[in-house]
């Protein structure tokens, strides 16, 4: 079987974002699995307008009108599965991430998604909202997630402190094992 294409979406575009650290960390762990072909997607590279197509993507025939949204749709279409790396903003997830999800519909369908989040409660409230949205997009959110607590304590001078994410290696592994199972199963089913 071809390698399974996993796209890791960084949920923050802020300067000095923390997002960068867990995204690169989980990408390294995912790449260590020989079944995965991993690509990091940075929403800074896809500066899309707030969704303003005349109809919902569910009813759209053909690609989005906006060029950047079109590129985004093509990238999402390539994927067999996703890992979303999300902060918690006001007990939810960032608007830039919601907008990226809203832009396309069919390209997300019948694909699994796993979550790495962070915040004072490990970003758990943001992930609960992401799970609900994923179901509406006909995705399969996997059970296990990585919840990183108090990310602001894990960086010094913009760099991740040595070993700061080591305590999360176990939850990352169980999440990746579940993602692998679902990615393989759904790719076969989509076949
Ligand atoms: C607009 C905004 C709202 C936030 N709200 C929450 C929150 O509700 N819960 C929480 O745990 N952290 C909250 N935070 C703190 C973030 O978890 C923290 O700043 C984190 O580093 C943001 O992720 P980023 O650096 O990747 O953008 C908030 C931060 C911002 C900028």
Features:
8 strands; two-stranded antiparallel ribbon; Rossmann fold; six-stranded parallel beta sheet; globular; alpha/beta; 191 residues; 5 helices; binds flavin mononucleotide
What would you note in describing this structure?
The structure is a single chain. The chain is α/β, with parallel strands linked by helices and 191 residues long. It has one domain (4-190): Flavodoxin domain (Rossmann fold, 3-Layer(aba) Sandwich), CATH 3.40.50.360. It is 35% helix and 20% strand. It has helices spanning 20-31, 67-78, 95-102, 124-136, 169-190, and strands at 4-10, 36-42, 81-87, 112-119, 140-141, 146-149, 155-156, 159-160. The termini are close together. The structure holds flavin mononucleotide. Flavin mononucleotide is lined by residues 12, 14, 17-19, 87-91, 119-121, 151.
Distance between the termini: 12 Å
The CATH H-level homologous superfamily: Flavodoxin domain
**Residue share in helices?**
25-40%
Question: Could you say what the CATH topology is called?
Answer: Rossmann fold
Summed up, the domain count is 1
SSE pattern = EHEHEHEHEEEEH
Described by the principal axes of the CA atoms, the overall outline is globular
Strand content: 15-25%
Number of strands: 8
Q: How would a crystallographer describe the biggest sheet? A: 6 strands, parallel
Q: How are the secondary structure elements laid out?
A:
Blueprint: E1 4-10, H1 20-31, E2 36-42, H2 67-78, E3 81-87, H3 95-102, E4 112-119, H4 124-136, E5 140-141, E6 146-149, E7 155-156, E8 159-160, H5 169-190
Parallel strand pairs: 1-2, 1-3, 3-4, 4-5, 4-6
Antiparallel strand pairs: 7-8
The structure holds flavin mononucleotide.
């Amino acid at each position: 079987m071809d390698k399974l294409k996993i796209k890791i979406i960084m949920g923050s575009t802020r300067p000095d974002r923390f997002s960068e650290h867990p995204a690169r960390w989980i990408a390294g762990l995912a790449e260590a699995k020989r079944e995965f072909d991993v690509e990091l997607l940075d929403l800074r590279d896809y500066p899309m307008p707030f969704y303003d197509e005349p109809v919902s993507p569910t009813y759209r025939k053909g690609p989005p009108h906006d060029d950047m949204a079109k590129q985004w749709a093509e990238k999402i279409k390539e994927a067999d599965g996703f890992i979303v790396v999300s902060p918690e903003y006001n007990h939810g997830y960032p608007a830039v991430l919601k907008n990226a999800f809203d832009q396309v519909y069919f390209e997300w369908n019948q694909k699994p998604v796993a979550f790495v989040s962070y915040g004072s409660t490990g970003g758990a409230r943001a992930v609960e909202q992401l799970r609900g949205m994923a179901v509406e997009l006909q995705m399969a959110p996997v059970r296990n997630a990585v919840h990183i607590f108090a990310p602001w304590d894990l960086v010094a001078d913009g760099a991740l402190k040595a070993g700061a994410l080591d305590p999360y290696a176990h939850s990352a592994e169980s999440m990746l094992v579940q993602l692998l199972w679902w990615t393989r199963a759904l790719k076969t089913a989509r076949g």
